Every structure is written in structure tokens, then in C-alpha cells.
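Lab notebook page, bench 4
Experiment: in silico fold of construct C2
Operator: M.H.
Input chain length: 92 residues
Purpose: comparison with the prior construct
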Amino acid sequence: MDNSHTDRGIDVVIDASASDDDEFGTLVLTTIADELGTDPASLPPLRDSIDPDVLNSFFQAGGESAKALSFEYLCYDVVVTDDGVIELRTRA
């Protein structure tokens, strides 16, 4: 776990920009499962919080300036950027 961002309330930061995973939503779910210490299959579907197709399209679109998309999932505020950064912030 990367603790360099804890002063900003960010619990986990993953740089997935080098990932060749076509399903960015799967990577987000796996990141959350890893943080919770559980199997991704035991978690509620990500689509209960965000449309996985929208998430995947957002990541694949990229762009010249980083854009962010945020949503709530379980105990986290999840922020993803179109350049492949995933941030998990524990909700109070």
C-alpha cells in the first residue's frame, strides 16, 4: 500500500496506466478486494455503483489532460483518472 498520500485522506493509490487489462472495472474491483483482504468474487457487483462499460470507456479514451471520475463503492470513495490512476478514500 502506498502511504505517501495519507495526508490527503487517500488510503490507496494504484497506477494502472501500464495495465493491458481491457476491463478497467475488473482492475478497480481487484484493487478494492486486495485492500479489503478478500476475493473479488465475494464483493457486490461493481455495476451496483457504476456502469462498468462507462468506466472502461473512460479509461480507454485517455486524453491530453487528466480527467477524473468518482463514485462510491462499499466503504470507499473511488476516484479513477483516464490515465490509469485509482485512488481509494475511506468514507467517514
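Observations: Confidence is low (pLDDT under 50) at residues 1-7. The helical segments are 24-36, 52-61.
Next step: discuss at group meeting.
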